[in-house]
C-alpha cells in the first residue's frame, strides 16, 4: 500500500511538473510514419539548452523553442523510405540527449496505367544531359536545411483548384513502372495566380525540360516547396516572399498535356504529401506560438 501510494505520489508530481522540466523527453507524432508523411517532433530538454536538432533517417531537422519551453520541429519519411523500425535522435547543444523509436510503414497511394506515343518515352542525349543538370540544381535546393524559420502561420494550398493528380500515385507507362508522383497536381486555367504556400525565400527559378517554368521556395527548418509548369514567373531568385503572395501563374510549360499546377513539398530532402504538410503546419504553427 505504501509503495502504491509512493508511486501515485511520484506520478502525480510528474504530471504536475512543467513539461520542460523533464530533461531528455522526446515525442514524435505520429510515432508510425507512412511513406511520404511528415511528423511533429517535440523535445523538452531544459531551459539551459541553446540549440537543438533531430536526426532521422540520416537527415537533420532544426528544432525551435516553442511557447511552452519545449523544442519543436518536423521530420518526414520519403515517399520511397524503407519500411521498418527507425530511431530519431535529438541533439541538444551538439550532444545526443534523447531518442525515440519511429516506425516507417509501407503506404499504398495507388497506381495508374497509361499508354503514350513512343517518341515521348526516350530522350535525345542532349535532352538527357539538360535534364540531369536541371535535376541536380533542384536536388541541391530540396536537400537544403536552413536552420531559421521563414514561415509563421500554417501553409495554404497555392491555388483553389481540385486535385487531379494525387501524391504518391505510381504510373506504369507503356508497361514500364515510373517513379511515383512526388507532388499533387491541381486543376486550373492558364493564367490562374499561384500563391506561395508559406513565407520563404525563392531558392530556384528555372526553365526546365520536364517541369517547364519552376519556382522552388526555401521556407527554412528544412521545408522546401516547388511549383511547376508555370506560364509566367513573378519572382526572382533570392527574393523573400510572403504566404499568399503571387509567385507566378498556372501554365503548361514542360512535359505536360494540359494546364495545371504541380505542387510539391520536401522536408529534409524527403518527398512529402503536400496536403498532409499543409494540415500539420497548422498544428506546428499553433504550438510554436502557444495557441
Ligand atoms: Zn505533377
Q: Which descriptors apply to this entry?
A:
41% strand, eight-stranded mixed sheet, Immunoglobulin-like, alpha+beta, 291 residues, ten-stranded antiparallel sheet, 2 domains, disordered N terminus, Glucose Permease (Domain IIA), binds zinc ion
Describe this structure in words.
The structure is a single chain. The protein has 3 helices and 21 strands. It folds into 2 domains: 2-107, Immunoglobulin-like (Sandwich); 111-288, Distorted Sandwich (Glucose Permease (Domain IIA)), CATH 2.70.70. Strand 11 (170-173) and strand 12 (176-177) form a beta hairpin. It is α+β, with helices and mostly antiparallel strands. Helices cover 17% and strands 41% of the residues. The structure holds zinc ion (ZN).
Radius of gyration: 21 Å
Number of H/I helices:
3
Chemical compounds bound to the protein: zinc ion
Structural class: alpha+beta
Amino acid at each position: 500500500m505504501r509503495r502504491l501510494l509512493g508511486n501515485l505520489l511520484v506520478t502525480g508530481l510528474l504530471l504536475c511538473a512543467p513539461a520542460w522540466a523533464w530533461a531528455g523527453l522526446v515525442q514524435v507524432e505520429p510515432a508510425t510514419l507512412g511513406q511520404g508523411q511528415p511528423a511533429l517532433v517535440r523535445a523538452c530538454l531544459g531551459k539551459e539548452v541553446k540549440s537543438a536538432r533531430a536526426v532521422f533517417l540520416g537527415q537533420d531537422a532544426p528544432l525551435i523553442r516553442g511557447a511552452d519551453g519545449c523544442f519543436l520541429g518536423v521530420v518526414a519519411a520519403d515517399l520511397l523510405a524503407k519500411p521498418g523500425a527507425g530511431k530519431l535522435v535529438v541533439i541538444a547543444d551538439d550532444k545526443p540527449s534523447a531518442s525515440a523509436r519511429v516506425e516507417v510503414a509501407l503506404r499504398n497511394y495507388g497506381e495508374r496505367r497509361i499508354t503514350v506515343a513512343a517518341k515521348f518515352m526516350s530522350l535525345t542525349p542532349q535532352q538527357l544531359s539538360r535534364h540531369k543538370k536541371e535535376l541536380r540544381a533542384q536536388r541541391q535546393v530540396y536537400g537544403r536545411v536552413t536552420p531559421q524559420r521563414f514561415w509563421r502561420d500554417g501553409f495554404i494550398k497555392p491555388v483553389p483548384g481540385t486535385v487531379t493528380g494525387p501524391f504518391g500515385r505510381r504510373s506504369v507507362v507503356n508497361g514500364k513502372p515510373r517513379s511515383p508522383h512526388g507532388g499533387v497536381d491541381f486543376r486550373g486555367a492558364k493564367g490562374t495566380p499561384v500563391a506561395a504556400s508559406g513565407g520563404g525565400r525563392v531558392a530556384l527559378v528555372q526553365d526546365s525540360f520536364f517541369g517547364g517554368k519552376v519556382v522552388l521556395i526555401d521556407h527554412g527548418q528544412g521545408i522546401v516547396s516547388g511549383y511547376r509548369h508555370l506560364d509566367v514567373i513573378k519572382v526572382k531568385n533570392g527574393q523573400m516572399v510572403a504566404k499568399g503572395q503571387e509567385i507566378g501563374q498556372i501554365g503548361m510549360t514542360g512535359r505536360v498535356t494540359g494546364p495545371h499546377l504541380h505542387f510539391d513539398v520536401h522536408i529534409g530532402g524527403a518527398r512529402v504529401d503536400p496536403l498532409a504538410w499543409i494540415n500539420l503546419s497548422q498544428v506546428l504553427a499553433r504550438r510554436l506560438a502557444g495557441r
